[in-house]
Amino acid sequence: MILKMAWKNIFRYKKRTLVTASAIAFGVLFTVLFNALIFGLSNESEINILEYETPGAKIFAEGYFEEIKKLPMEYLIEEKDASKATSYLESKKIPYTKEIQTECEIYFNEDYFETSGSMTGILSAVEVEKSKDVFSLHKSIESGSWLKKEEDGSACTGAVVGSWMADDMNAQPGWFITVQCKGRGGFSQTIDVPIVGIIHCPDAEINSSYIFMDIDYIDEMLSMEKAVTAIDIGLGGAGLADRNFKRFSSEIKKTDILNNSLELKSWREIQADVLSVDDMYSLYCNIIMAFMFIIAAVGISNTMLMSVMERRNEIGMLKAMGYSSFYIKRLFMWEGVSIGIAGCVIGCTAACLLNIPLSTKGIDFTSTLSNVSMGYRISGLIKSGWDIPGFIRVTLGALIVAGIAAFIPTNSILKNEVADIFRKN
Fold first, then answer.
1. 3-state DSSP call for residue 147?
2. Which residues of 351-360 are buried (b: 16+ CB within 10 A; e: fewer)?
């Protein structure tokens, strides 16, 4: 009965109810959409990291991970240790590729390009065929082709460059660039290589910074003596990588592969800086949610206060009929909750309708993100997601705030006796 009465009461002041419900609806709409967008960005970023940049796990030489941002060439997995690790991975039928990764300087001149210049990049040398089982890089070639062995089986001497780097250079497949980087022992090596392919993938870091080459060729040019900087291990996509890593980690630790010279790291440990962006955006989302709750609280409180003042006689009559103060407070509380429900229904419905095209088609920010980094590993097309727990959290929060905000204004008048209420009127 009390719910039915509360629901009818909110229509006694239609304009006031509409304004308050609209304010709540707008707050819910904005918060839900922002939360859905962050949820979609986070999921897409994790997928792109695993498919193009960092697989489920990597094996490093001891000391490398502490300085991973510098991509050092001082901490290497020697041939003996690498062979032992890869033999174990092959016995377990786990996809992998050996990798040599280092910072490099890329030079281009007027022999092929419109102007001369240089840019900094990351040279990533991988096994041509095995890398296809770990990454999806070969599926994202925009022009040219992925790395291929020569007909006689010798190493590929070409390079695949990121599309944004290629755009900056106005490069085309077949044109030559000069790559300068450090080899084993710290010596500087200069390599003239043709561009065999240009890669454009959803990972902005790959498009803007990476150049890929055959590990056999780089092993020779940098005098690596079969040593590598890492062994990349494919453990499945975003939904499987974490679970598979736990199982794989426990199994490999039972062997003597991870001796004092090697260490295993998960993709989350390697990409901790990127994943920490989620925490920052989650904080923004919580701040927006807090503002939304404040708007809801002020709106509901103001509406209920005006309603209480206008209905003093009604409150006095209810008390005179024997209804307790707590019952009357609950009546007004449920009125506030009813307005909150109306606002949440409108806001969530509008948010769902707007989120359908956002989650399927997305918004293309390629021209913006090619120059500015959001922290997420996305290249331009931003899609939202369906964060159902987030929808529920925002809705319940709005309703709880609405109920509390409606409960408070009735306190002052209910402290008076029935006679005092009528006398003041």
1. coil
2. bbeebeebbe
* Cβ atoms 99, 125 nearer than 8 A: yes
Q: How does pLDDT run across 119-167, given as a tens digit for each residue?
A: 999 999 999 999 999 999 999 998 999 998 877 778 888 899 998 888 8
Q: How many helices (H) and strands (E) does the chain have?
A: 16, 12
Cβ-based neighbour number of residue 142 at 10 Å: 15
Biggest CA-to-CA distance, the chain: 105
Ranking 43-47, 282-286, 349-353 by mean pLDDT, the lowest is: 282-286
* CA atoms of 234 and 273, how far apart (whole Å): 21
Cα distances (angstroms) measured from residue 164 to each of 104, 141, 205: 16, 13, 10
Write out 345-410 in H/E/C secondary structure: HHHHHHHHHHHHHHHHCCEECHHHHCCCCCCCCCCCEECCCCCHHHHHHHHHHHHHHHHHHHHCCH
In the beta sheet, which residues pair with residue 193?
177
Q: Is the Cβ–Cβ distance between 68 and 263 less than 8 Å? A: no
Q: Quote the tokens at residue 324.
A: 């307790």
Distance CA 77, CA 261 (A): 8
Torsion of CA 335, 337, 343, 346, to 10 degrees: -110
Contact between 24 and 344 (Cβ < 8 Å)? yes
Q: pTM of the prediction?
A: 0.75
